[in-house]
Amino acid sequence: MLDYDKEAERYDASRGGEPRAAAAAEAVLGLLPPGARSLLDVACGTGIVTRRLAAGRDALRVTGVDLSPAMARQADARLPGAIVRADSRQLPFSNEQFDAVSSVWLLHLVEDAGDVRRIVAECARVLRPGGVYVTTVDKGASHNVGSDIDGVLASRPRRPASDAAELVEAYAVGCGLVPAGQGRFPGRGQGRSPRRAIADLRRGWFVTLPPGHPLADEFAARLAALPDQERPRAEPEFTLRAFRKPPVPPPARSSPG
Lowest CB count within 10 Å: 40, 58, 102, 186, which one? Predict the structure, then answer.
């Protein structure tokens, strides 16, 4: 896995920057309840999306949380006083504190299924009844746009997707949430060129082909043989799923005696 403290300085520029952040924030906001007044953005990273969530709806109070010190510092510079450094598997908030919770580009990074369950459970725990949890799913599959680069990388070693939509839904339902919609948004500026794919390979982007892996050089050579080394291929399109915590039913009225 990438070292996100080391990635923090170049993170935004290498992942579509403000255009991608704007697309993500717009899609997340489109799935929130109209009356939501508080949002927790889990694994907020540099805060580039978090800031747009805060600016995108009047009266929405946004809190960001991230475990990486370097990421949290950058996020705090964008939203001073609204960022908390903490582990998404054990959120430092009370039960039912937020009207909405988001986790954008998080679950695909978590290799242990038990940790994915814990993250979803924590997001459900801090969510108020009637609130919505919004998360990206199937991120790895989103990057397969049918390009010649994808053709080269198709035979690389893979691990099961920890953010597969059916798994995330099962975890959410197991926490008492119910499906409440979905959305899609483009990965602006993330169309990958062969040269960029090689650079990503060299720095450990592909977790099953870390630097030094016996097959890494072989895949790099195959990528280097593709035409138009600098031309970006099509952009990915990411998927969001929303899950609602059912409202607490009113107490039953006793019948007159």
Answer: 58
Give, for all 257 residues of the chain, the pLDDT tens digit: 556 666 666 666 666 678 899 999 999 999 999 999 999 999 999 999 999 999 999 999 999 999 999 999 999 999 999 999 999 999 999 999 999 999 999 999 998 999 999 999 999 999 999 999 999 999 999 999 999 999 999 999 988 999 999 999 999 999 999 999 999 999 998 999 999 999 989 988 887 888 888 899 999 999 999 999 999 999 999 999 999 999 977 676 655 55
Distance CA 53, CA 70 (A): 21
In the block, tokens 């948004």 appear at 185
- Rounded CA separation 215/156 (Å): 8
Cα(76)–Cα(84) distance, integer angstroms: 8
Domains contained in the chain, CATH given? 4-144+160-190+235-244 (3.40.50.150)
186's tokens = 């483009």
Pick from 84, 80, 81: which is nearest to 69 by CA?
84
Both tokens assigned to 124: 């459900």
Indicate the angle between helix axes 165-174 and 113-125, nearest 10 degrees: 50
d(CA 97, CA 84): 15
Contact 88, 67 (CB under 8 A): yes
Q: Kindly report the CA angle at 112 between 108 and 118, in degrees rounded to 5?
A: 85
pTM: 0.90
